[in-house]
Amino acid sequence: MLFGTIRLWPFERYRHKVPGNPLAVCIEQQCAAGVRALIDGEQIVHKRKDTANGLKAEGARRTKQVSNVIRESELTGNFELHPRLAADCLVVGYLPLSQLLLLNDARYPWFVLVPARAEMTEVFELDEADQQQLWRESARLARYLKDVCAADKINIGALGNLVPQLHVHHIARFTDDPAWPGPVWGHSAAVPYEQAVVQQRLYSVRDWFADELTGVPLTGETQCTDGSS
């Protein structure tokens, strides 16, 4: 910027020759004031440009949010959780793609991801973006089972023979669990959680996902059934 290099010539030289000359002092003050006004004006212009750019960016961000909501609504359609999953599981909350469920079997930390897409039965039926998001959610959930639940092995499977709705099981396995080393499916009847234990499990996994998880049910909506206390 050139303002800092402006010299008040010839008034500086004239002022030194005639100290205190009111005309020279007045002219110098007026020139200095003019320079300051130009600098202030330029700063105001920059500030207004920054404000305009900020408003433009905020508008773009909100437009993208609206577009995402519209897309989500279109993709979700008439999605409803299968009655069998609703009966066997407790709702943990909602990830960007999937409904996260906890199977009501206290012998295993056993979670289910259900992509909130209507009439889906296979992973390949999801669009590419949803496939990638499902994989990210699956990996994040598996990490929880490994790091927090200290699983010896993690079983991940999308069977769907009895419940055709697309859903992916994530089960923490231990060398001393009832079904080890065989599969848990069809091994024996589930043992429902006691209320205190299930609340600890739900709090743990919700804390793990933190802000990724939305739509968390109220405490009273996660009561265990089948006689558990």
From TrEMBL:
GO molecular function: catalytic activity
Residue ranges annotated for the HIT domain, each copy included: 112-180
One Pfam assignment: HIT
Protein name in the entry: Histidine triad family protein
Organism in which the protein naturally occurs: hydrothermal vent metagenome
Taxonomic lineage of the native organism: unclassified sequences, metagenomes, ecological metagenomes
